[in-house]
Amino acid sequence: MDNATLKAYLADNSQVVAIFMEKATDFLNKQNMERLPARRYNDAEINRQAEKLLDKVIDTLHDKIAPHTRDDSAAAWEQFLGTNDVLDDLELSMNEMSFEQED
Predict the structure, then answer these.
(1) Alpha-carbon span 41 to 100, nearest angstrom
(2) Full-model pTM
(3) Minimal CA–CA distance to 8: which of 58, 52, 73?
(4) How far apart are the first and last CA of the chain?
(5) 75, 69 in Cβ contact below 8 A?
(6) Three state DSSP letters for the chain
(7) Confidence band of 102 (pLDDT split at 50, 70, 90)
(8) Contacts of 16 (CB under 8 A, 6+ apart)
(9) Highest taxon of the source (predicted)?
């Protein structure tokens, strides 16, 4: 399963993507408000940045799951995700996750 398919699967079968995007967007909006008014990003840029953060999370998740699946088929990945309660664990992790400002 490639990253785009994994992202779509997570979006369709869990709240992982929605939870992450909400938290990332909130964080980026707070960060944006600290910028000078003339340098603030518009909503489209905030969404692009949130998508980039999500893509990094999906990349990391893919890299961690890939060694545990026998093949790269969607069926094998779905079986692994279901058998090991990965979606539930990811949702819990996303609910507990918080972004922190770097100084």
Answers:
(1) 19
(2) 0.89
(3) 58
(4) 37
(5) no
(6) CCHHHHHHHHHHHCCHHHHHHHHHHHHHHHHHHCCCHHHCCCHHHHHHHHHHHHHHHHHHHHHHHHHHCCCCCHHHHHHHHHHCCHHHHHHHHHHHCCCCCCC
(7) low
(8) 10, 87, 90, 91, 94
(9) Bacteria
Angle at 54 between CA 51 and CA 59, to 5 degrees: 125
Render pLDDT for 12-31 as a digit per residue (tens, 0 to 9).
999 999 999 999 999 999 99
Whether the pLDDT of residue 103 is over 60: the answer is no
Distance CA 11, CA 21 (A): 11
- The pLDDT score that the predictor gives to residue 100 is 78
CA-nearest of 97, 96, 76 to 9 is 76
